[in-house]
Specification:
The protein is α+β, with helices and mostly antiparallel strands and 348 residues long. The chain has seven helices and 22 strands. A seven-stranded antiparallel sheet has the order 8-7-4-5-6-10-9. The chain has a six-stranded antiparallel β-barrel with strand order 11-12-13-16-15-14.
Length: 348
Amino acid sequence: MAWNSWLTIRTLPSQQNEIEEDVSNPDTMVVNHTINGYTTDITETVAKVQSRIVSVLVTIEDRTSTGSGVIYRANGNDCYILTSYNVIQNADKVEVRFDSGFNMDAEVVGTDEKTDVALLLVHPEFQTEPIVLGTAEVVKQGEYVIALGGRNPSTGSGTVGFGVVSFPAQVYREYAVEEVGWIASTLFTDIYAVDSTSGGPLVNLNGDMIGLITRRATTSDSSPRLATAISSDEVQIVIDELLDGGSVTRGFIGVVGRDVEQMELYEKSAYNLMLDNYDGVLITQVVEESPALVGGLQIGDIITQINDTEIHNLADLRQLTYTIQGGDTLSVQVNREGRTETVSVIAQ
């Protein structure tokens, strides 16, 4: 019994996610909590990322408002700033204020209203460092994240929010009647965010940007201002389009889906899927009056190919939608109840 107790005491620290460090004062002990190898001392991550965040100052008819942005790319004196379309919408003048305090006029390179993304260009005469763009594909429900905003010009302090990802999934967002709805890869969190945080980055504990904070995904004005973010993977596709031509073209299909590879066994059982199936995109929702519904796609179908493009995951599906145009006829191959079927869908 004594030997078993000694083993328990010796092995317990290695089973906990805590590292104890001695400091100069022998009566003081520092406990450094870690999660997946990253320290949970939020101040370290904030300090690492803060210089890459900017304030975006917008003037509309002599009124000034403030949002946030993040340094996306720096090439010589060309510095591209990523922000929210909602921040600069209808602006007569846009300025960027760097964390160091320097202000300069910004040029709007391009915008995409449906994903609430805007790209700005400034020409600083000092060195700038872009944020590290991570991937949101691996983000899990319950993962710790940080929402950051630029410094307020009047107070000199930025905004920091800390919480967890409550819903890392696709979400369908309604727009005006004359607009086509768009399904964007969106991260929901439990972080309270003030309006000025819009356009700032959502980062993981390593300081990598996994999303662009947006107000557009909030379902109503009465909803709590909890931080939501367009995933970094979708943002990357949009930015590539904006850099190429200043605008974004895409075809709309009208399905919400999940990576089969990311599904738990009990979730596969709920949809009567083969438990050893790890490929394709499972349709979990078909949008009303969408091309998918008209074409005959169904909840429970697994999309495996569209035209000549194999669809292994949501990233493949999302990338494809940016290459098709409204009116294109798509040959969608699906696995339906264990058999392969092909459905014809006309994109909007």
